[in-house]
Amino acid sequence: MITTTGARPDEVMTISASRLLEDDKVMFAGIGQPLLAAGLARRRQAPGLTVILEGGMIGVQLLPGEFPASTNEMRAAVGAEMLTSATDIFLMAQRGFFDYGFIGVGQIDRYGNVNTSLIGAHDQPSVRLPGPGGANDIASMCNQTLIVTSHEPRRFVERVDYITSPGYLEGGNSRAEAGLLHGGPSFVVTDLALMDFEPESRRMRLRGLQPGVSVEDVQNATGFQLLVAEELDALDPVNAEELAILRQLTGRV
Predict the structure, then answer these.
(1) What crossing angle do the helices spanning 33-42 and 240-250 adopt, rounded to 10°?
(2) Pairing outcome for strands 114-115 and 125-128
(3) Which residues are registered as beta bridge partners of 228?
(4) CB–CB of 21/33 below 8 Å?
């Protein structure tokens, strides 16, 4: 991967994800990279982005070097516009008030179904993952879901071992047929590429490449066959200003 700033892969995908966020929108963020991407977007192109956490914080203002470890940590409440309850947050999501939901994954499949529960058989899993938190509600009820994750075959799998957060289920109209009448994953951002979902089949589709990455690189890191858009975007490399802001937020200055 080619950058002029020495950015790490996790920084590349966080910065790429932040660029998707628009001003004057409302975002329901998961902890970690989704929240970092939101914090970066607010300091650059989207100062009017309202960031909401499951713990009841509305209008989150991240403190540089004081990144919260969970959605319920009070560091996330400093400077917030409003403090309410998790119940109120999920009611707002159900009513369609959130433009973006933003989550990470343990596994993801070709239809954008996400697993953060377990690896292996349900009765005897080989790995227990952290679980959904509010990710199922985010993926089920927000107007669109953005996903950020590192790109490797163990994460991008033919079929997830457990559907923690629904994508397009079996593809086509199956999400709506299951009662999820709106929303769904819109973009998947990784350290290698940007993907979306083909509108008819709802299969994951390669849309853009990080600097220095080829289509073959992306396919080799994916455990299923990706669709490829007719015109691929060349994603802009990380610039020094973006990286400096991100590292200030994480305390890595």
Answers:
(1) 120
(2) unpaired
(3) 206
(4) no
User: Is 65 in contact with 110 (CB distance < 8 Å)?
Assistant: no
Q: Return the structure tokens found at 112.
A: 């954008």
CATH number of residue 44's parent domain: 3.40.1080.10
* pLDDT, tens digit, 9 for 90 and up, residues 167-184: 999 999 999 999 999 899
Please check whether residues 30 and 12 belong to one and the same domain: yes
**Chain Cα centroid distance, residue 41:** 14
Catalytic residue among 11, 22, 54, 73: 54
- The secondary structure of 61-108 as a DSSP string is -PPTT---SSTT-GGGGTT-SEE--HHHHHHHHHTT--SEEEE--SEE
If asked whether residues 59 and 144 sit together in one domain, one would say no
Model confidence, pTM:
0.93
Task: Provide the residue type at 147 as one letter.
Answer: I
Both 65 and 87 in one domain: the answer is yes
Same domain, 63 and 112: no
* Contact yes or no for 46/22 (Cβ under 8 A): yes
Same domain? For 157 and 244 the reply is no
Residue 214: domain span: 104-235
Residue 98, CA distances (Å) to 140, 207, 208 in order: 12, 25, 26
How far apart are the C-alpha atoms of 41 and 122, rounded to whole Å?
Answer: 38
* Residue 54 among the catalytic residues: yes
Proportion of the chain above pLDDT 90, given as a percent = 83
Cβ neighbour number for residue 18 with a 10 Å cutoff = 27
Identity at 234, one-letter amino acid code: A
CA distances from 164 to 61, 78, 151, 157, 211 (A): 29, 31, 19, 14, 32
